[in-house]
């Protein structure tokens, strides 16, 4: 976007991201809670499901994005990377939570993130079935079809793990003694632990309803869109070693920076 200010560039990105969510939602919903084939992308006995809803939504997003910002790159879970000449790169997971999707649970969402020179600058999570959308600008925002005007998101204060609500998508994600110890250490101290949620849980953290999320082995398309939402809501999200989460990896997010510092110290003592 030559000749435009950073603020104008971000404004255009926000507008297009909402358009992409509006386009992809109906593509997904026509398959939700319907009988459909489920393919397995994994090998070696694992299960990594994909459906025509995943592929159809990503295709619709990619085609629409090519008309809006033809020079932008895109990384999608289903169709890989398309290089661009711009410093902007879109990171798309058409259905984060496909396992939930195929059993009819609404704990899934479409993730649309944008990096500039490798740094996350914008994120959006759309849940078209419930009519909810979470996104970031200079603040984090939320809108529901039943909730009227967009509301600002804010994480809540929680300094002690003993007072915290902890969540992760599933304990079987934690492989090997080191990862399992990280989960069990936090779980044993937390007030409450719940499983499930995928991207939806991160938005609940940004909404001040969850205090800490820990997950291993995420890809960039699992997390890039969620980083700006959490940070603009006042939370902290890093790798387990305190590094940038933009490329994925082992991820820990908290609503309170003090809790994040303590949780990192706990898992890095193991």
Automatic annotation (TrEMBL):
<protein>
    <recommendedName>
        <fullName>Histidinol-phosphatase</fullName>
        <ecNumber>3.1.3.15</ecNumber>
    </recommendedName>
</protein>
<keyword id="KW-0460">Magnesium</keyword>
<comment type="similarity">
    <text>Belongs to the inositol monophosphatase superfamily.</text>
</comment>
<dbReference type="Pfam" id="PF00459">
    <property type="entry name" value="Inositol_P"/>
</dbReference>
<dbReference type="GO" id="GO:0000105">
    <property type="term" value="P:L-histidine biosynthetic process"/>
</dbReference>
<feature type="binding site">
    <location>
        <position position="222"/>
    </location>
    <ligand>
        <name>Mg(2+) 1</name>
    </ligand>
</feature>
<dbReference type="GO" id="GO:0046872">
    <property type="term" value="F:metal ion binding"/>
</dbReference>
<dbReference type="GO" id="GO:0004401">
    <property type="term" value="F:histidinol-phosphatase activity"/>
</dbReference>
<dbReference type="GO" id="GO:0007165">
    <property type="term" value="P:signal transduction"/>
</dbReference>
<dbReference type="InterPro" id="IPR000760">
    <property type="entry name" value="Inositol_monophosphatase-like"/>
</dbReference>
<feature type="binding site">
    <location>
        <position position="93"/>
    </location>
    <ligand>
        <name>Mg(2+) 2</name>
    </ligand>
</feature>
<feature type="binding site">
    <location>
        <position position="77"/>
    </location>
    <ligand>
        <name>Mg(2+) 1</name>
    </ligand>
</feature>
<dbReference type="InterPro" id="IPR011809">
    <property type="entry name" value="His_9_proposed"/>
</dbReference>
<feature type="binding site">
    <location>
        <position position="95"/>
    </location>
    <ligand>
        <name>Mg(2+) 1</name>
    </ligand>
</feature>
<dbReference type="GO" id="GO:0008934">
    <property type="term" value="F:inositol monophosphate 1-phosphatase activity"/>
</dbReference>
<dbReference type="GO" id="GO:0006020">
    <property type="term" value="P:inositol metabolic process"/>
</dbReference>
<feature type="binding site">
    <location>
        <position position="96"/>
    </location>
    <ligand>
        <name>Mg(2+) 1</name>
    </ligand>
</feature>
<keyword id="KW-0479">Metal-binding</keyword>
<keyword id="KW-0378">Hydrolase</keyword>
